[in-house]
Amino acid sequence: MSSNSNLTNMRRLVDQLKLEASVERIKVSQAAAELQQYCIQNACKDALLVGVPAGSNPFREPRSCSLLVQDLFLSPGNRNS
């Protein structure tokens, strides 16, 4: 039984090695240059670099609701003085 399991593991290993051998390789300097070019081209779309406009920020707390709530509590008919 362990012989069969060992054979299966070896076949998986061979398949993995074949897959890795077939991957096209490029020089690190070429990969770095391509990555740098990609970053430069897409910098204008990066929210961490250019920020998020206040109008399109989905995490901004709505101001109008808090003002409405304050108006309800501060209206003359609701004062307990």
From TrEMBL:
Against PROSITE patterns, the record matches this protein to: G_PROTEIN_GAMMA
Predominant localisation class: membrane
Keyword annotations for this protein? Acetylation, Cell membrane, Lipoprotein, Membrane, Methylation, Prenylation, Transducer
Superkingdom of origin: Eukaryota
> What membrane topology was assigned to this protein in its record?
Lipid-anchor
Q: How does it assemble?
A: G proteins are composed of 3 units; alpha, beta and gamma. G proteins are composed of 3 units, alpha, beta and gamma.
Q: What is this protein called?
A: Guanine nucleotide-binding protein subunit gamma
The major lineage groups are: Eukaryota, Metazoa, Chordata, Craniata, Vertebrata
